[in-house]
Write a structure and sequence with these properties.
Shape: globular
Structural class: mainly alpha
Largest sheet: none
Number of strands: 0
CATH superfamily: MFS general substrate transporter like domains
CATH topology: Growth Hormone, Chain: A
Strand content: under 5%
Order of helices and strands: HHHHHHHHHHHHHHHHHHH
Radius of gyration: 21 Å
CATH architecture: Up-down Bundle
Helix content: over 70%
Amino acid sequence: MPQETNKPKRNYYIVFLILLTFFVISFLTNIIGPLVPDIIKGFKLNLALVAVLPFAFFIAYGVMSIPAGMLNQKYKEKKIMVAAFIVAFIGALLLALFPNYLTAVVSLFLIGCGMAMLQVVINPLLRTAGGEEQYAFNSVLAQLIFGAASFISPLVYSYLVLNLQNNASAKDAVLQFFSSVVPANLPWISLYWVFAVVCLIMVVVILISRFPKVILTKDEQAGALKVHIDLLKNRTVILFFIGIFCYVSTEQGVSNWISQFLFEYHHYDPQTMGAKAVAYFWGLMTAGGILGLFLLKMMDSKKVLIMFTIPAMICLTLGLFASADVSFWAFSFVGFFASVMYPIIFSLALNSVGEHHGSFSGILLTGVIGGAIGTLIVGWLGDYIGLRYGLFFIYLTMGYILSVGFWAKPLISNKTIHDNRKEGSLAQ
């Protein structure tokens, strides 16, 4: 008599909630890039000092990822998600009420802590709720949602800043409120009032939602400190940790400096063209995600990673050295080709080890500190040799991502249409 497999029941409510959370995380996270020129002007900073802001945000992932996994084990998903949005709300409100450089650093660190807590919870849940064999597909779908929100937030920034500067508040109650609470020389602070409201709404949504009981297998749970130490002795774990580090360095190292680069080298207005370029970066990431979803159903994820990384490097080169119009679109298309990198690396990583996926997820998310280090290195180099040559650092991180497509050896490969056909023919 065949043994009954104890596979977790797929829970599509959790999948939907995860996708919604990805949207909000992205809406709050990827606005720093369009703000960089305004922050430099408003707080009178050099490139290295302004890079401390994304550094503060992403270093929070290094501080919170592993502890958040352990807290999730004790207090469960709903409480951790509520706590995460409360922490992010406090961070957003702090900068909204006290707009200066020091509170900006603290604010972004708190928001980063909240986002790290959320990602530690939702990534293993996505693998469990949607199915291991669908994890690469669902991860790219989440990245698609992530890109859509990042496309919207720079446009919200442009709308608020331009209307506040043009005294259009008389016709709009929301703009009237912002005019009364936001310093006239820092109209971008209005975004952090929006972020505070969004965080409060998410707290309410999670509190009133009926959370189905989702049981993580022992393998999916975050283990004790010893489990993390043992994993860190595993060469595969370290290699994929570096992969996540390099991806987030690439994503943030490009997106955070697009607006400043276009302003510095091509004299584009940061509040219009600069914000548009960043919005298109994330919007095209959404489009690339759609193509990635299709390709992951057709071929091995490692091949997809290679196919997307090489054009990303070409687009970076055009962005750095081509004319103004070509540079604008080339930087935007880096987002298109970066769309599949994170979800494929993450899914390859989790599918390359046989156990302790919850703990491994926490370690991988610690690699998000790449967004802190990469942006800071580019800014530091930019102060000494110019932003164009500072961005050469991104070639190193993209090169490592390309290598993952050659050396990764997952225990479980992504399921393709060809696999379904084989299973169907075997069943006949």
